[in-house]
Amino acid sequence: xxxxxGKFVIVTTxxxxxxxxxxxxxxxxxxxxxxxxxxxxxxxxxxxTRWSVxxxxxxxxxxxxxxxxxxxxDPVKALKLLLVYFEKIM
Length: 90
Description:
Layout: E1 9-11, E2 17-24, E3 27-35, E4 41-43, E5 45-52, E6 57-66, E7 68-72, H1 75-89
Antiparallel strand pairs: 1-2, 2-3, 3-4, 3-7, 5-6
């Protein structure tokens, strides 16, 4: 299905979660999304953690990032490999 802004979106769960195909300067990514009751989609966000050498523990970074998987400049190759893997295990 196409969303308002022309991005390809697939809802994959009964909780209105799914993926959206994003493109930034020719690098493709699958971004985790959630759909609200009105049908508008929003990216899922997460905070990164980094190891603090001084404190000897992981610390949560302030700035959140979208949850995504970068497929690179040849997404078809990556998706074909994923398809082969899933066909093998299913």
